[in-house]
Amino acid sequence: MSYETNVKTRYFRPSIQLIEAKARESRGEPAPKGYRGNQSLPNNHGERVLHSENVNLWIRNVPKRITHHEFLGFIRNTGKVRSLVLYPPTDKHQNQAAALSFMRRDSAEKFKSDCKSGKIMMRGMMLNVKWNRNKAKGPEWSESECDTVSRVLMIEGDVEVVNQEYLNAYFRGKLDYDIDEIIEHERKEGGDETRCTIEYRFACWRGQAKLARRALRNEHPSLTVKYGKDPCE
In terms of domain of life, where is this protein from (predicted)? Predict the structure, then answer.
C-alpha cells in the first residue's frame, strides 16, 4: 500500500536548468564550462546591485579536483552560503576557480578577509579572492526571515521515500544540482511504517535547496521538509 494514499499532490515542473542540460545532452553538445544564466536579464549580471550590497566572490587558485564537500568544509563560523559553483582548469589557468556567494555581505567580507590573512587555505594553497563582477544581492528579507532559509534540507517521512536511492533519483528528475553532503539521521519504528530523517546539504540555496523543497512539498505532501542549519555558519 502506498504511504500517500488519498493525499492530494501537485505536479512540480523540472527546473529550466535541468531541461536545458537534457536538451544539450540529446543534441550531443558539451556542457558549458560555467553556467552564468541568461545574461540578457539584468539580475544575472548585477547591473542593479551596488558594490556595497554584493555578496558574490570570484576565487582563483582553487586546488585541482576539489569537490563541493571539501571546499565547503573549509568554511566554518563564517555565515550561510548562498551558492557555490566550481569551474574546472583551463588552458590559461592550471587550477580551478569558484564563484561563492553568501546570504549576507558581512559573511562574504569575513571569508575574503580570512583568505587574505591565510586563516583559510585549501590544501596549503592561498586563495585569490576578489569581488565578483557578476554581482549578486542577498535575500531582501528581514533578518529573522533570512535566518529561516538555507541550502540545507531536513527531510523526514516514511523510509519508502526518505532514502538516498529514491531521493537522489527523484531530484535528478527535477533539478540540476550539486551535493555537499547527505547525512542519514535516526530511524523510528512505529505502527505500519518506519520513519527516517535525511539531511541534504546542497551547494546552492535558491536554485537547488529551495526548488527541491518546493518539489517535495508539492508531490510528496506527507513528508516533513524543513530548512536545516548550514554548517558554514
Answer: Eukaryota
